[in-house]
Amino acid sequence: MRALSLLLLMSGLAFAQAPDSRFSAGGYFRIMARPDFQGGNGRLGYWNLNGRLMNEGPYAALEMKLDLLQAPPGTTDIWASLHARIEGGSVTTADSGNGSLVNFKLSQLYARAGNILAPNVVWQLGTLQYFFGNLGLYDMRPAQILEDTIGLSGRYTTQHVEVLLAVGDSGFTARGLNYVPLLTAGGAVRVRLGDHFEFGGGGQVAVEPFIAGNRNSSYVTPGVRYEDYLRQEVLRRFVEENPLLGADQFPRAVASTQTNVSWRAVGYLGFGKLGPLEWNNFFARYQRLHPQNAYTDTYQGRSVQVYTADLTRDRYGLQLGNEMMIKIIPDRLDAVWSVLYGQDRDYANTIAASEANREYMSTVLRLQLYFTRTVHLLVENAISRERSINGSLFRSNYDSIFQNTQGIADSRGLEFGDAAIRDSWQFKTGIVLNPTGFGIYARPSIRLLYGFQLSSQHAAFGNAFVEKLDQFDAFKPTGTMAWHHLVSLESEGWF
Q: 277: closest CA among 362, 365, 336, 199?
């Protein structure tokens, strides 16, 4: 550990003196032009549930590495390196952010050192993200841990086994400016059995110690009803029920009787290189989200802090995903088929429709036909269903507020729309130019695509339509909008 500390202390000097051959950089970019003539923001749907293609905006990432101490190949000599990653989702003239650096962040910064204390062990100090793989068509990583944690990890790697152990703090990710320490520990194991099969699993747990007197710690406001919390009318209800006391006598927060704990478990199974099956990845994640801290409630010009740890500690999420890559006709036709299932639950909320209580499922199939080595035809089909567990969350008509509650507008209602299910169908096709040759994931790619979405929800895409529940709205659409069409000229690549 002394050697590791010495290497980290010398990192600034080594960066200034390192020769060019020790520095390397790579990255990713995605940029597109998608004029939207239906009042949208240039994306087919709301999110990647129907695949990432034409549902994502511009993006850029740059990852840098500096070798501080190099070891000859095949030896167990000590080595060390620095890593940094900058990424963000805005490019000038391509989106509303206009390329502002506010939309970018230093997402990864860590030092690595190998063969200290034991051979085949890599120590990492800094950000600790670890994942088993990607659902490429969705651009998701269900089996991922420690992306919210800063700390120290040790990874032991051999030809067949990889073991990771880590400790750190995830308080800034969970609470931001309202930071409290979240002591986090995690680990993962991956086992490779030859070239055709591998599996793994892991998890993490975060514990929030109570700190008396720290206003960001796990306090609770006693006597808060869940409906008043949802409406953010806790102070109003207290004043109405206690007119002689008033806002000055609003209950003081007390320490929670339960320790705030969150956790996550992930699993992975991969197999392939079997005939036309190139590879199949299956990922699973089940997690308990960390309780929230507080919000500011205002009534008649007075404001109070309402502490909500006891109201938000029972939130869970399940996500399962599978992706299969198949060479149907070698060097002529490839396919990728993905399936995604998820469920989010907030067991404290039994009265209001929200995305915290939902179930979703989707399947995406992409075919790529190779006219030549570099000119390809892309066809992608995706269908999905989202179901609200607590009632109507989706609006199937532009005037759906008059379609429920017996046709009477209910601005106090806890349902947003008139349907509990949203069904969507997306289809995309077009020409792809891949300078590097065959492969659905070969990059860089230049694509000219047409896509459409048919949804059971009115205007089911990011749009500029007014969504308030007002029958006198001045900005009214001409009718219910189920279809959304887009043409996209885009480019994507690694470098």
A: 336
Average pLDDT for the chain: 91
| DSSP per-residue codes, 222-286 | TT--HHHHHHT-HHHHHHHH-TTT-GGGPPPPEE-SS-EEEEEEEEEEEEEEETTEEEEEEEEEE
In 34-131, DSSP assigns E strands to 59-69, 79-88, 104-114, 121-127, 130-131
Running DSSP on this structure, what letter comes out for residue 477?
Answer: -
Angle among Cα 59, 174, 43 to the nearest 5 degrees reads 30
- CA–chain centroid gap for 473, Å, is 34
Q: What is the DSSP string of 442-467?
A: -SSEEEEEEEEEEESSTT-SSB----
Q: For 399, phi and psi rounded to 5 degrees?
A: -110, 40
Question: Residues 6 or more apart from 379 whose CB is under 8 A from it?
Answer: 366, 367, 368, 369, 428, 429
227 phi and psi angles, rounded to 5 deg? -65, -40
Query: If you write DSSP's letter for every residue of 326-371 in order, what string do you get?
Result: EEEETTTEEEEEEEEEEEEEETT--SS--TTSEEEEEEEEEEEEES
Nearest to 149, CA basis, from 102, 99, 183, 175:
183
Q: What is the per-residue DSSP string for 365-403?
A: EEEEEESSSSEEEEEEEEEEEEEETTS--B-SSTTGGGT
pLDDT at 406: 59
Q: How many residues does the chain have?
A: 495
At residue 106, the 3 state secondary structure works out as: strand
The region of weakest confidence among 170-174, 385-389, 410-414, 425-429 is: 410-414
Q: How far apart are CA 351 and CA 369, in angstroms?
A: 49
Entry pTM: 0.90
**Mean predicted confidence (pLDDT) in 373-387:** 98
Tally of CB atoms within 10 A around 172: 16
User: What pLDDT, on the 0 to 100 scale, is given for residue 11?
Assistant: 42
- CB-based burial of residue 170 (10 Å sphere; 0-12 exposed, 13-18 middle, 19+ buried)? buried
- By the 8 A CB rule, do 190 and 266 touch? no
pLDDT tens figures, 7-51 = 444 444 344 444 457 999 999 999 999 999 998 999 999 999 999
Strand partners, 271: 197, 280
**Angle, vertex CA 462, rays to CA 456 and CA 463, nearest 5:** 95
The per-residue pLDDT for 437 is 94
Contact 219, 178 (CB under 8 A): no
- % of the chain surpassing 90 pLDDT: 79
